[in-house]
Amino acid sequence: MSKITIPLGPQHPALKEPENFMLVLEGEQISGATVNLGYNHRGMEKAAESRTYLQTMYLLERVCGICSHSHTTTYITNVEELAKAEIPQRALAIRTLIAELERVHSHLLWLGVAGYEMGFETLFMYTWRDREQVLDCLELLSGNRVHYSMNTIGGVRRDISIEQKAEVSRRIKFLEERTRYYIKIGTEEPTVAARTANVGMLPPAVALERGAVGPTARASGIARDVRKDEPYLIYDQLDFKLITHNTNDVFGRLVVRVLELVESYKMIHQILNNLPEGPIAVKVPMKIAPGEAVNRYEAPRGEDIHYLKSNGTDKPERVKVRAPTLANLQSVAYMLEGGWLADVPLVIAAIDPCMSCTDRASVWDPKKGKMALYGWEEMRKLGIEHYKKRGVNFSGL
Amino acid sequence: MIKPARIFSEVIKHLFIKPATSGYPFEKAKIMPNFRGRIDFDSPKCIGCQMCVKVCPSKAIEIRLAAIQPPAPAQVEGQPVVAAKRKFDCFMHLDHCVYCAQCVETCPKDALIMTQDFELAHTSRAALTRHYK
């Protein structure tokens, strides 16, 4: 049978984000897949350099709409490490609480998306309805559903009152009951099994080789979780299990996420019951001493890494974000090979991709068939030309 | 262990419970008491220190001297002249604002107030710049 190459994307391959997958097809079976990144340029890392440390925090919160707390916490841990600030225990506990609530909301969102991709829209509707409970918890504690802005340099911005504690645990108890039902559906419903079992296989050896992180790695039986490997915040004081599964397929990723929900509920109750007393923030000076810091964080999608370089002023010199999807995209190419065309959206969605967090721009020259990167000078020249066409002249700047 | 029709009992149960969605534009939306909405300004409290302008991550606030200044208080005999308190106006660019409420936290005189107002959509861009006097 002759081979045909079809492009999937960049107009939403699985989710509504631009990324391109070139699939080599033999009939309906995929014999080769390439992932092409480079459709998104937001210039956030550069923009961070012209803002103060506090302003950069609000900018980096907007790297991702789902792991907003993950990115700020990682960034702020770097800043606090460079400023040598002692963060109060209560602030760390509140940060951990928001982090776990965020994981619950992200995993429920993923479960809905997976239901949608496998053609099981009832599951999508139910999980997204129940996800509102955890979003309400986040709004109650922080003042916003999506960009919580709970962190500040030196601690957290809002304290938790007794009434809020009671309200959060009431809603979490409701979610625990619902999650028990989703575990039943996920493991026993034939629709789910038929669409996910033996789809998107990723053997442990390949997962290790390609550096998979988060639930994608854990579903291949690799016990890899920053919360256990290198505990940050107050994870060393909490009692929770590291969930792994050994089926190596999309079904395994579903099971890992659903069981992680249960662990997160357990942690939320532990934190709410033993919230340490004391202040919620300390003062940190505007100017940060020169130095470099790197920190890791277990975001709902996997390991998130931030690098920060300071130069003694009130603005960072370099910020670098490595979102978890970048690590997992290498595995997607492998998972797609040998599979069926109809399973592609589900396999891509199974790593819970967040393309805009991952992507940096690159330039593709179709005449030469080459990929190129722009330097600072070229970027500046292009920017000036672009605005000249619109009638604004920036060449004097 | 495959058990078909796991979802049916749940579907039937859902026939008898009321919808999870609210009829928002016709019904009042439920907002949490600490929701971060539009920022309001209390001019008499403002001292024009510009702290909020410096701290704003999206350059959404401008604090300017008001066009009409209040008159100086009448001089009391035997006491030095008291200078008039300067009045400041606030220009809030709602299209820039990210509603982080950092300015409210930074303001040393509590001149900026966080409200729960969220219905801010408008058809003209100019109307998104609010002038608080």
Could you give a short description of this structure?
The complex is a heterodimer of chains A (397) and B (133). Chain A has 397 residues and is of the alpha+beta class.
How is this structure best described in words?
Chain A is of the alpha+beta class. Chain A has one domain: Cytochrome-c3 Hydrogenase, chain B (Orthogonal Bundle), CATH 1.10.645.10. Chain A contains 15 helices and 10 strands. Chain A has helices at residues 44-48, 53-61, 68-83, 89-117, 121-142, 162-188, 190-196, 204-209, 214-218, 226-229, 250-273, 324-336, 344-350, 355-358, 376-389, and strands spanning 3-8, 20-26, 29-36, 151-152, 155-156, 291-299, 302-310, 316-322, 363-365, 370-372. Chain A has a 3-stranded antiparallel sheet. In chain A, helix 4 packs antiparallel against helix 5 (121-142), helix 4 runs antiparallel to helix 11 and helix 4 (89-117) packs antiparallel against helix 13 (344-350). The longest helix of chain A is centred in the first third of the chain and has 29 residues, at 89-117. Chain A is globular and about 70 Å long. The model of chain A has no long low-confidence stretch (mean pLDDT 88). By secondary structure, chain B is an alpha+beta fold. Chain B has a domain at 31-67 and 84-133: Alpha-Beta Plaits, CATH 3.30.70. Chain B is 13% helix and 16% strand. Chain B is built from 3 helices and 5 strands, in the order αβαββαββ. Chain B has helices at 8-14, 51-55, 102-106, and strands spanning 39-41, 61-65, 88-93, 112-114, 129-132. In chain B, the strands form 2 sheets. A 3-stranded antiparallel sheet of chain B has the order 2-3-5, with no helix packed on it. A two-stranded antiparallel sheet of chain B has the order 1-4. Chain A binds chain B through residues 51-52, 54-55, 57-59, 62, 122-123, 126, 129, 132, 136, 139-140, 143-144, 147, 149, 157-158, 181, 184-185, 187-190, 193, and chain B through 1-4, 6-7, 10-11, 20, 32, 34-36, 55-58, 98-102, 105.
